[in-house]
TrEMBL record:
It comes from the Bacteria. InterPro entries: c-di-AMP_regulator (IPR053154), YbbR (IPR012505). Pfam families: YbbR (PF07949). The lineage of its organism: Bacteria, Pseudomonadati, Bacteroidota, Bacteroidia, Bacteroidales. This is YbbR-like protein. The chain crosses the membrane at residues 21-42.
Length: 336
């Protein structure tokens, strides 16, 4: 007689299950679960301590009051009780927020102090009668406020920004570029600039946009507390311009002439800044506006030599690595 393969396979599987789930194995499994249950009950019946946190909220703040420095947003405390209750307290949303009534804790002069004992009493209302709070961690339970006094303050970057190779940071833009700062008169008068939290941005070649937090002040509040920051990199290019040489610290009865009378000044500048620099209308060559190259008569007088040193005294904003092509030139001193 021919045996079909599916029935044969099912038979093997059934025999395998019957060997596993025999009477002895089921008895062993029962006692294993039972002993595990006893162990769990005994463990949960032991006394434990564990730290928890509960949200803290300000309540009944009048509409004309601005909290400029808030207390901690959570209260951390340690509870001692049986293990099963400690486990229950560890469940998500086990605790509701506790509230600090503004009217109860304000001194009426811009500050307030929340009593840890009052917070502890509110926490006890959410615990079992057998639970004991062994400690409330030290935190910031004070706050400051004012009645809407504020001023507009510009935002500035704090940190380091380094674009990619052959680029430099041409411009930083903030949106908004200033924020409202709320504080008491004395604190407000001392704040002239609001800085971002310290930033470290590097290796970028396109416009980079970030949302950044503003640095916090003691007893002051910035609105908004976050701004958008855009970083604009620009390509660096090597350029040069001919600049007349001037003599400085000259006596009224003398004239110092240099040979040559002009010197080429090399510098590095961003492509965008280069487009804004003044140029000759016909030749489109750069004009020396903003550059000043000098020789110092006092240096020549004190250290006579065949040549005098050339210095770049002034250069326009946005240019860097400025250096004259010649560091010394011939000169002649004439009597007027």
């Amino acid at each position: 007689m021919k045996i079909s393969r599916p029935h044969f396979t099912f038979g093997i599987f059934r025999n395998f299950l019957s060997r596993i789930f025999n009477k002895e194995f089921l008895i062993f499994l029962f006692f294993l679960v039972l002993s595990g249950g006893f162990w769990l009950v005994m463990t949960l019946n032991e006394t434990y301590e564990r730290e928890f946190s509960i949200p803290l909220r300000m309540a009944d703040v009048p509409r004309n009051v601005v909290i400029t420095s808030s207390p901690d947003s959570v209260v951390r405390f340690t509870v001692r009780d049986k293990g099963y209750l400690i486990a229950a307290y560890g469940l998500e949303d086990a605790f509701r927020p506790v509230f600090a009534d503004y009217r109860l804790y304000t001194d009426g002069r811009g500050r307030g102090e929340i009593s840890p004992a009052d917070l502890q009493r509110q926490i006890y209302l959410q615990l079992s009668k057998s639970s004991k709070i062994t400690s409330v961690k030290n935190g910031k339970f004070s706050f400051s406020f004012n009645f809407g006094r504020h001023k507009k303050v510009p935002v500035r970057l704090l940190g380091t920004v380094t674009p990619g190779n052959n680029y430099y940071l041409a411009h930083v833009e903030f949106v908004p570029d200033s924020v409202q700062v709320y504080a008491a008169r004395g604190v407000l008068d001392s704040i002239q600039t609001v800085y971002t939290e310290r930033q470290h941005v590097s290796n970028f070649t396109d416009v980079k946009e970030l949302t950044v937090n503003l640095r916090r002040f003691a007893d002051a509040k910035c609105i908004p507390a976050r701004v958008k920051m855009r970083l604009y990199p620009d390509v660096l290019t090597e350029e040069s311009v001919e600049v007349p040489i001037e003599a400085i610290n000259m006596p009224a009865d003398k004239v110092l002439r240099t040979f040559p009378g002009k010197v080429r000044v090399n510098f590095v500048v961003g492509a965008y800044r280069l487009r804004t620099m003044p140029k000759n209308a016909e030749t489109r060559e750069l004009l020396p506006a903003g550059f000043r190259v000098v020789v110092n008569y006092k240096e020549v007088e004190e250290h006579p030599a065949d040549k005098c040193h050339v210095y770049v005294l002034v250069s326009p904003n946005g240019v860097r690595n400025v250096r004259p092509a010649l560091t010394t030139v011939d000169y002649l001193i004439e009597q007027r």
